[in-house]
Amino acid sequence: MKMNIDIVRTENPRAKPDAENRLSFGRIFTDHMFLMEYDEGRGWHSPRIEPYHPFLLDPASPALHYGQQIFEGLKAYRSPQDEILLFRFRENAKRMNRSADRMCMPIADVDLQCEAIKAIVRLEREWVPHGKDTSLYLRPTMIADGSELGSHPARRYLYFIICSPVAAYFSKGLSPIRIYVESECVRAVRGGVGYAKTGGNYAAGFKSIARAKERGFDQVLWLDGVEHRYVEEIGAMNMMFLIGDTICTPSLEGSILPGITRASILQLAQDAGIRTEERRIPIDELFDAGQSGELREAFGTGTAAVIAPVGELEYRGQTITINRGEVGPVTKKLRDTLTEIQQGLVADPHDWVTRV
Fold first, then answer.
1. What pLDDT digit, counting tens, does each position of 206-222 carry?
2. Residue 244 and residue 169: Cα distance in Å, rounded?
3. pTM for the full model?
């Protein structure tokens, strides 16, 4: 399928930020945005790129009352040859549709989503930063629209993509982070919306994360919502643990986001001859392994941070330090391999990268 995208260029282009000194994460936005609308009985229509601008929403918009809202996150990279590269972006479009299905929102054809992503990246090419560990972060989003109260799916939706030049997600860079294991609040339960990328999943964690940060931690590790026993995610990242010679990660059972970075790291680990396991991981097993020295490394994976090494875990007054609080060799190798593929620095054996 093809669509004609109308393009209106800004008459007031913004100054590009200095990649070395002024970039943080998600605070600066590019000149343009992609939009299209969905109406019941008509489907998706009016695809266009316009100058970045605020929305005018009716106070009765269903997105504001019933939480019909989903989003994605992906990145465009600049290669040493000045090519612009997208990483596994079709997987983002597929996951967007899985989220839409769970939240009872309309599906947007994968090819059309990919065409929209490529179109906005082409137009904003000069916004893709040149600096080390920088990229252009893309946020495709769908929200319910209209002016009708009532606890039922909306009849109108808005899909849009905004772009933000970014540096490393954590200000510490690759320095290991400190994690607090949450033993009271939960993020999601099986049968719920944990596997969907919807805003409520993140808002539900803010209170626990704020409390953890007050105590000097960087993030929260969630446990399962039934037994409060099995490891799930940290913040916006999947978790992995090198126990002995095996990378273990929680299995996908409906309460965990199926991360694209997660899947990529598991594949790269297997390519390197490292055994991997997707299974339920009891928190007590993890702490026993930490005390015995079997827990050699731990790290989170996600689009924003790529890989975030974990140096310390605290759970109910017990603390374990992992790999002396330093970045482990397996963590570093996997991160380096993935980022080099994303940036076009090495061969791409799995055809994950698309040149725009």
1. 999 999 999 999 999 99
2. 29
3. 0.95
